[in-house]
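@here heads up, posting the sequence + SMILES for the zinc ion run so it's all in one place. Ping me if the SMILES looks off, I pulled it from an old spreadsheet.
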Amino acid sequence: MEKTETHSGIDLAARYDDLEVDQARHVRIVAPAAGIGLHVYEMPSGMGADSILVLIQMNDYWFLPMTFEPQSTDAATNALQRASMAVDLPDLGCSAGCYFPMQIAKGEWIGDLIVRNVMPDAYPHIHYSLLYKSPDQTLEDAFANNLEIARNQGTGMPPTSGLGSPVSPTELAGTPTTFYCPYEYSSAAAKTIMDNTVMLSVGGAVCSCACAYNSEAGDCGVCP
Ligand SMILES: [Zn+2]
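bot reply: prediction finished. Complex structure tokens:
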């Protein structure tokens, strides 16, 4: 079957079905790698609720997108989510993007995911991805049409270490701005954690890989 990764990342879901109405759980979220700035975009989630996309800028080419998705339509919950980030979001919002130049250490707190009053048929989570930005385009241009950003299909990936990798970046000639599965670029320790976590496709079927290629119809697809 052809691989068609449309999801562009991994949903790291938080426990939520044990809470009472209006009871909140704060889930501490830290930076997976060091960065030189945070870019924030506020936008509707795929379920139509509010979400906050935080891109940790690693260098000129590579970013770690982490979308805080409480999946709640409750205004108080979404206000609490906005107030629970490591940076102060302006009252006017960040729909066109906000930039916070700052040094971020690996493991540093970037915000709490708020688990409270979750909408039906949704799960609160961090959408975790990896982005290569082509120098042909600004980040603002890319996220003005974020659904148009290319999704890597698990083949032809940049190196995971050494020259051209996210930690030793170069321009990848001919590669457009592209989302990659963060699993392949994770440490052995992080991979072990993911390997020992129950992995589900969008349809609820148990998968054997963190990025479920072709997962939309409950088919876990093919792991590279
Ligand atoms: Zn997602």
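MO: Residues 7, 9, 11, 127 surround zinc ion (CB under 6 Å).
MO: One more: The longest helix spans residues 75-82.
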